[in-house]
Amino acid sequence: MADIVQAAKLLGDARRVVVFTGAGISAESGVPTFRDALTGLWERFDAQSLATPRAFQDQPDLVWGWYEWRRHRVSTVSPNPGHRAVAAIETRVPGTVVITQNVDDLHERAGSRDPVHLHGSLFAPRCSGCGEAVALPPATEEPDAGRRVQPPTCVRCHRLVRPGVVWFGEALPEAALEAAARAASACDVLLTVGTSGMVYPAAEIPRIAARAGAAVIQVNPHATPMDSVALVNLRGSAGRILPELVTKAWPGAAADDPAAAPS
Ligand code: BJW
Ligand code: ZN
Question: Which of 200, 220, 237 to mutate to test the pocket of ligand 1 (most atoms within 8 A of CB)?
Fold first, then answer.
């Protein structure tokens, strides 16, 4: 049986589905993946060294400028057929849990109801001192070459405002991690999409599902450490594979279904 047919059968028969996503699902919207090379001002850095409390402590303007560039980039792009296919799965299998490592809001904008954000959000900055949430004005145009931007300071304690994301060495939000682990251990099918599967504890989520007996289906153009965890590996882009998977899993889908629309 062709892999996509097998995957569609598993998905179509599933009662409880988890969709676990990473940066690859947003790549076709024009959001660089985490491990894509950085350019411009950030060319001589890698993302892994910038996404740390140490980098923010040493060079807050460099790090804040990077996040402002990304906040602006995300605010100018749109969800792609991959995000819309995930939302279509939610409408067909009520109770589907979407777990994302992404800090963008493209799942929400595609219609996903309440995605679990394991690594926080570009749109929820907070004070690095007292933790107070801070509302920022809409993102302004940022040059692709990058620029250093001094972060704002907290009106309560005057410490620097930091991005509301989870950096290396920081704990993931407890409630999100618990919800993700609970959903993974109770699902029939877990779809892992566009993630290198290298960052923990998030990378445990598909493994938890596999250990609990779920069928893990992976969508990624390249091999990842998750290949050996997945029952079915679908090699290709999320924007192409996910709509096809939805159409094959629920052949009666209406022609105007966004997930069935050509990309
Ligand atoms: C397509 C595509 C298309 C392309 N369609 N696909 C166990 C073992 C070893 C190390 C550790 C461990 N446990 C913890 C650690 C340390 C560390 C870690 O995992 N390190 C590894 C790198 C080795 N983990 C942590 O530090 C975590 N914290 C922690 O453990 O705390 C402990 C603690 C407990 C209590 C108190 C205090 C501390 C925190 C990890 C936080 C990660 N945060 C980041 C940054 C977020 C902010 C930001 O974005 O700037 O999250 S790192 C980065 O990686 C980001 C991502 O969400 C995450 C995952 O990346 P993702 O999504 O997989 O992207 P890529 O770029 O790697 O891959 C893209 C994929 O898409 C590729 O496979 C492509 O092929 C594919 N693709 N186009 C489909 N069109
Ligand atoms: Zn404060």
Answer: 200
Q: Give the helix/strand (H/E) hosting 161.
A: strand 161-162
Percent with pLDDT over 70 in the chain: 95
State both tokens at 63: 């790090």
Nearest C-alpha neighbor of 183 from the set 87, 102, 118:
118
Q: Residue 157 and residue 42: Cα distance in Å, rounded?
A: 30
Least distant ligand from the CA of 201: 1
Q: Which protein residue has the closest C-alpha to ligand 1 atom 1?
A: 24
Its pTM stands at 0.96
Burial of 29 (0-12, 13-18, 19+ CB in 10 A): buried
Question: What's the confidence (pLDDT) of residue 258?
Answer: 54
Average pLDDT over residues 176-189: 98
Locate the ligand 1 atom nearest the alpha carbon of residue 168 and give its number.
26
CA-CA distance, 219 to 237, in Å (whole number)? 7
